[in-house]
């Protein structure tokens, strides 16, 4: 808190208080997309690599693998959705740019964190589960449904992060 | 509804009619033949029936198909996911079986493949050769001239650059006439051409050995090295052209549709191979199946499973045709596990896709399909929550059903999505969202649309997300409770009534009691507009308390009765109550419906907002906007229909099925004319 206060004082002295709230909020908005996006990229990358290897055995499986590869991509979308909502709330998209106070800026920043971190880690681990699922599907094509369901187990925590981010955002009044 | 009744059938017939009876059974496709009972095992055919010639034919055709299929046109996305069979006219099928000489095609494939291999190895050899010579292309004498003369020896060699100066020095120290030319150099090595007197051969060899110099022998070629490289390159080009000609020939076999003299369109050769493959495999199957039969000198016996409703047809058609035959039908005994055939009404049937994804029910279980089908459609719809997306999905799946030739499970999946699409339209209308359009922005003369929307709309997921969240949890509670009810029903059939009611009924009172208590105690609900007064009348509090107490008492009573010991039972009861936490997390799991639904809504708005930014661009703005709208919404539909489907599956498998369903039944697979590639079209 002291750090924040110090920040507040400094910014107040510099007369920058109006802009700094927006800046901090933007840092939050950016981190939701960036972190969840990194997670999804790594996750999809893991699953993609594995599927490319497994495809060399039987290229006919492409359609099946595609779904398993796409699965860890959803976290990035959740991050994007939260960022978009926050951006709308601030009027960055579709409206007039509002000027949040320093506190509001931090509120938006923290509201973005659940989806950012839950997305980052769950996407990576979901990628691993999906990669294993791809190897299973390559050997037992009929069991693909089970591989999908296993992957979805990991995604649930990104969804919880998304829900909390959403609820926090909708609680902030600007 | 649910699981078809399966009975056991025994057919005993005269040996002379055996082949005909098997043929008839194959055609009817009603009986799943199994090995005859253990008691008769010594009647099994010995040695096992086989047909090596037929197997060999099938293997050859299989080889030709897999060789040719690499030249086929790439299949579309749907085709790889839901493989379909090729429709063949009956006449044409018969014609292929009678007249098509597969051996010729197989030989052609073999020849093509061996030629291709030969060309590949030739090209590899030539490439290696040209690589070898390429280091010497600066050598300005013909290669055949590099040979020993009367008094001199010649050498081509490679020296490491680090060793080169020492090597050179050693040579000059010999003080004998030596010619040394550095023909080529790389970072690591120098390529040298050496001429020296024959009498100094031993000294030179010693120096060469000391400095790790590699002597190079070039292939016996004529002319300059650079000329040779060009020749080799031309040869490779020629070979590659020949390879392409081979490929074209192979492609011809897979693609050309030949119109014969009568004007019928004949499918390409590869399809003919497929027809033969299917035909021969059927023949082989009908031979191999006889290994399950019991035989004596004069008679044979087979056993199998049959659906109750098919018995009449089987008896009628067999007894009509064969006089010496006996058909016995019995109920399956307790230790036998009959296979499963799901029979559901037309609306429910598509959802068997999901049941089969998990596991078929055991014969003694209930088929869960009709129970989860309505939930499935509703949950999927909640994940999309957009009437527009529902419309698109319905139309796309309808077109898919009409245009694509799909297998049974493919059809079921499309029908399921079609039904779910219709439910999505309804749910989307109730949520008032259509392609994420902000109706407040509509011009004044279209305000009536907004009015209609508000009349239908129950809630706006974006404006009132808490209500949406509660709806998701609410449907979750309902599904979990339905799960308990099904379990109660199943236990009523097998266990004592008191035990069944105490074990499952307690939860059915306890959980709603808890929820009612929650409703009474949470004043927040007023602000959400769910209830009018701050508290439900005190009466409800009393009711909820009674339900909770009754539920807990029931759970304890059940465990005490079961363990026949009050203290042990009490402990078990406490542990039983702990399951509440598990059920609580089950219900929380339904939050995913809210999250997915919301994500779809916000993404739809995002697509619209992004697209609207482009409309200001002069000339191409409008077209660009349309493209972004179409691509964006299509992407959103696909990605969210996919997540919606998988997450909804998970809710059934993990939250719903665990309450009452075990699964593990084997599919009923009657002995029938099954095919791998083709299917006969009935006109």
| Helix proportion of chain A | over 70%
Can you identify the CATH class of chain A?
Answer: Mainly Alpha
**Radius of gyration of chain B (Å):** 39 Å
Annotated CATH topology of chain A: Four Helix Bundle (Hemerythrin (Met), subunit A)
SS content category of chain A: mainly alpha
Silhouette of chain B: extended
CATH fourth-tier homologous superfamily of chain A: lithium bound rotor ring of v- atpase
The helix content of chain B is 55-70%
Number of strands of chain B: 15
Largest interface: A-B, 36 and 35 residues
Give the oligomer, counting copies of the same chain as homo and different chains as hetero: heterodimer
Number of helices of chain B: 22
Number of helices of chain A: 6
Q: List how many beta strands of chain A DSSP finds.
A: 0
Structural class of chain B, please?
alpha+beta
State mean pLDDT of chain B (0 to 100 scale): 84
Question: Low-confidence stretches of chain B at least 5 residues in length (pLDDT < 50)?
Answer: 260-264
The biggest sheet of chain B, with number of strands, parallel, antiparallel or mixed sense and barrel status, is: 5 strands, antiparallel
